[in-house]
């Protein structure tokens, strides 16, 4: 069997056809699958931290998927979340990602694409394996990233990022002040199955600024119009 045995996936999906089909397919790939059919139970199981990834429907009875994801992130749970929804449109995708989801698929979706994205999320969440691990510890001013341990922070303050937010930040950090285009970010962070617009990078940059810059009154992630983004040391100058 080629699948990753003993890796547990939580599927939160109330559709009587999609949920069991996902469980059957993922179990055939070697995953341990826990299927729950309502948002409250899904939230409780997600808070256990027992899973390598969560597949989360948005339209759920009890507590909707946006709320489930937001509550997990608020509780410090960094398990990668792949959202599923019957909705379509960039606004819905941005809303899902704003709550802390790592990826997003619109129904009907290809099972092959879902599996590829799930594998990519699991790889990134533990080891950052999709981003080459040269220079495990990267520093830009007082901002630091440990790409092996999947941790980052400013000074003594450790910051909570989703798996994909961390991956985007790592691409910028390794460029060490050079401009990185949206397409370069897509090529480094997203898997080959991604066929969406590069504008999705803007959502992640916005999330990173909200977590890395705004609380510290910084502007370390700079937009270079027409080119992309760069990460700079934006610490205030020391007083003489």
Mean pLDDT: 83
DSSP helix count?
Answer: 8
Oligomeric assembly: single chain
Strand content: 15-25%
What does the main sheet amount to? 5 strands, parallel
Helix content: 25-40%
In CATH, what is the class of the largest domain? Alpha Beta
First CA to last CA: what distance?
64 Å
CATH-defined fold name of the largest domain: Rossmann fold
What is the name of the CATH architecture of the largest domain?
A: 3-Layer(aba) Sandwich
> How many domains, as an integer?
2
Structure description:
The protein is α/β, with parallel strands linked by helices and 240 residues long. It folds into two domains: 8-127, Response regulator (Rossmann fold, 3-Layer(aba) Sandwich), CATH 3.40.50; 137-231, Orthogonal Bundle (Arc Repressor Mutant, subunit A). Helices cover 38% and strands 20% of the residues. The strands form three sheets. The protein has a five-stranded parallel beta sheet with strand order 2-1-3-4-5, sandwiched between helices. A hairpin with a 2-residue loop joins β6 (137-140) and β7. α2 (39-46) runs parallel beside α3. The longest helix is centred in the middle third of the chain and has 17 residues, at 111-127. The radius of gyration is 18 Å and the shape is globular. The N and C termini lie far apart (64 Å). The model is unreliable at 1-5 and 127-135 (pLDDT under 50).
